[in-house]
């Protein structure tokens, strides 16, 4: 809600802090409380060689295809789980490529990289930042076309 108000930029209205909005929404009964604390689905590979953090928490970019971020998420469906992996451009948060599968193996990340390269060949040389999970640090992804 706070982000929506910030984006609207209402004239002459001072947007209160995020916590104030949350408290007001709680009072009138329109807040959402998650049922559980979300846990990440990828696990860090402790054996993998640690690469340098080239982004250093600066997830913005002045031009497209300079810095990108990637991650995967799990979607619960009636007939099982679906895993979605996507690559986002830090310039405008556009989805450059994605892939879906019923498992979260390294081939899902490889397919995401391939799909991104097919639609945006200019991504070669781009910094792609991930959470260093085992899928992203596996040998199959390192040998991928984009890297």
UniProtKB/TrEMBL annotation:
Region (Disordered): 29-48
Domain Integrase catalytic: 60-147
Pfam families: rve (PF00665)
Annotated protein name in UniProt: DDE-type integrase/transposase/recombinase
Lineage summary: Bacteria, Bacillati, Bacillota, Negativicutes, Veillonellales
């Amino acid at each position: 809600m706070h982000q929506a108000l910030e984006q609207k930029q209402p004239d002459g209205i001072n947007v209160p802090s995020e916590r104030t909005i949350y408290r007001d929404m709680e009072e009138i009964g329109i807040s959402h409380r998650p049922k559980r604390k979300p846990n990440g689905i990828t696990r860090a590979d402790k054996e993998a060689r640690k690469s340098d953090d080239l982004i250093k928490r600066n997830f913005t970019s002045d031009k497209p295809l300079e810095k990108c971020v990637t991650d995967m998420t799990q979607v619960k469906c009636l007939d099982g789980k679906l895993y979605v992996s996507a690559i986002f451009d830090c310039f405008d948060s556009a989805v450059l490529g994605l892939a879906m599968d019923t498992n979260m193996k390294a081939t899902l990340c490889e397919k995401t990289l391939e799909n991104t390269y097919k639609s945006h060949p200019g991504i070669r040389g781009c910094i792609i930042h991930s959470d260093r999970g085992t899928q992203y640090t596996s040998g199959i992804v390192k040998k991928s076309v984009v890297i």
